[in-house]
Design a protein that fits this description.
The complex is a heterodimer of chains A (99) and B (196). Chain A is built from 4 helices and no strands. Chain A has 99 residues and is mainly alpha-helical. Chain A has one domain (3-98): Non-ribosomal Peptide Synthetase Peptidyl Carrier Protein, Chain A (Orthogonal Bundle). Chain A is globular and about 40 Å long. Chain A starts with a helix and ends with a helix. Chain B has a single domain, classed as Gcn5-related N-acetyltransferase (GNAT) (Aminopeptidase, 3-Layer(aba) Sandwich). Chain B contains 5 helices and 8 strands; from the N terminus they run ββααβββαβαββα. Chain B has helices spanning 21-29, 43-51, 103-118, 133-141, 170-187; strands spanning 6-7, 11-15, 58-64, 69-79, 84-92, 123-129, 145-156, 159-169. Chain B has an 8-stranded mixed sheet with strand order 1-2-3-4-5-6-8-7, sandwiched between helices. In chain B, α1 crosses α2 and α3 packs antiparallel against α5 (170-187). The chains are: A mainly alpha (99), B alpha+beta (196). The interface between A and B is medium-sized, with 30 and 31 residues.
């Protein structure tokens, strides 16, 4: 897996989170980083916000890498941990889908 | 409609009652509810509005499993001839209490299971204010199809907004929406817990 692709996927996730922050109030901003917890215990996101990130990510990855992906199919949900625990887990999962 | 409580894994939906007036009015006055139509401005007005809901509607408070109310949702315009209805008045009022919990998705799942599986309806529909991009992404992801646009349909916060029309059929709910809802609910389960 090329370092460029890892960096590009991570930046795509960060961009989806930045877009989410644009939809949220100034007191409701999410701190963005590799350890940002996306869903489940300790998360800053509710399910509406998580869906916003998923939709933006699926679209951006498909556009950027030319391969449609689904982040909420049975394959994703059968993983332990699921890909939404934090940004790093999500990046790893997307890279697997793109491999 | 009979007083009905719907039970989920993370949330329950219980009937909205006039005693919920102060709580729900606070939610409606919050910035997060800016895209809803303006309604009551006092607790008394809100209580009167709740008391005046017709028997043909379902109006629910979304509760966490500890009983705490965190939002509301309704089902109105139930048409027993054409077999459709309009879920709406969907509002999460306690943002801090629902982080990391699939409150919104499970509340909508319970509503859709009520209308499609218990009431036997064929279609749900609704409108979203055109600048509410978060809600439109949400509805599309969960299976709603964009069906049209009514121009300058709402006057909210001092400006006209289009209303984007959405709808979903029962087979679309079963094939697309339900699996995605179940996936999001599963994502919130503590690791190593049994699948319900």
């Amino acid at each position: 897996m090329s370092s460029d692709k890892k960096t590009a996927v991570l930046e795509t996730i960060y961009q989806a989170l930045r877009t989410l922050n644009e939809e949220r109030g100034p007191d409701d901003q999410i701190a963005i980083g590799p350890d940002t917890c996306l869903f489940g215990e300790g998360s800053a996101l509710d399910s509406l916000s998580l869906v916003s990130v998923i939709v933006d990510l699926e679209t951006a990855v498909s556009d950027q890498f030319g391969k449609p992906i689904s982040l909420t199919d049975d394959k994703a949900m059968s993983r332990d941990p699921v890909p939404f625990t934090d940004v790093t887990a999500l990046k790893t999962y997307i890279l697997e889908l793109l491999a | 409609m009979p007083a009905l409580t719907l039970h989920g894994e993370f949330v329950d939906l219980r009937p909205l009652v006039p005693d919920d007036a102060a709580l729900t009015l606070r939610w409606r006055m919050d910035e997060r509810a800016a895209n809803l139509n303006r309604g009551a401005e006092t607790v008394a007005q809100q209580a009167a509005w709740i008391a005046g809901r017709p028997a043909s509607e379902y109006n629910f408070v979304i509760c966490l499993k500890d009983g705490r109310g965190v939002g509301m949702v309704s089902v109105s315009n139930i048409n027993p001839v054409n077999l459709h209805c309009e879920p709406g008045r969907f509002l999460i009022g306690e943002a801090d209490a629902v982080r990391g919990i699939p409150v919104a998705v499970e509340a909508m799942k319970l509503v859709y299971e009520l209308v499609f599986e218990q009431l036997g309806l064929q279609r749900v529909f609704g409108t979203i204010v055109s600048n509410n991009t978060l809600m439109m992404k949400w509805q599309k992801f969960l299976g709603m199809k964009e069906e049209g646009r009514m121009r300058r349909h709402y006057f909210i916060n001092g400006q006209f907004q289009d209303a984007v029309m959405f709808g979903m059929l029962v087979e679309e709910f079963r094939a697309e929406a339900l699996p995605r809802m179940n996936a999001l609910i599963a994502a919130a389960r503590p690791r190593g817990s049994a699948t319900i």
